[in-house]
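step: validate -> pass
step: tokenize input -> pass
step: predict -> running
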Amino acid sequence: MYEENVALVRRYYQVTCGDLVGIEEIVTPDFVDHHFPDNLPPGPECVRAFFTDVLGAFTDRCIEIDEVFANEDRVTCRFVLVAKHTADFAGFAATGKTIKCGAISIFRVENGRLAEGWEVADLFGLFQQLGQQ
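step: predict -> pass
step: emit ->
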């Protein structure tokens, strides 16, 4: 069971770095990620909106997983987002820079799909990279 949950999280990151095809098979219809903005709808649409609207300023996204482990219905993942800053984001004009943003996520799995997520990301480090000339 744990291996399946870890594989599910790996698949989530693969799909969210791509075209989001198949996200309905990965998250529950009422999926909520507690680090996403509150105004996003739940479920697959929540994921689409976040990765299209919020992180859409970063292209060529790749998640480099450093560590992942599972326990009961939870999967914890420590990773680095690597992406190119190609559009305005949080007041920063596109820089064309490749950024790296470390984060830790915890997911709750329910009936073979992700039901909830929490994340802490190094936004300070991200903003430092965007602000460098």
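step: describe -> The longest helix spans residues 2-16.
step: cleanup -> pass
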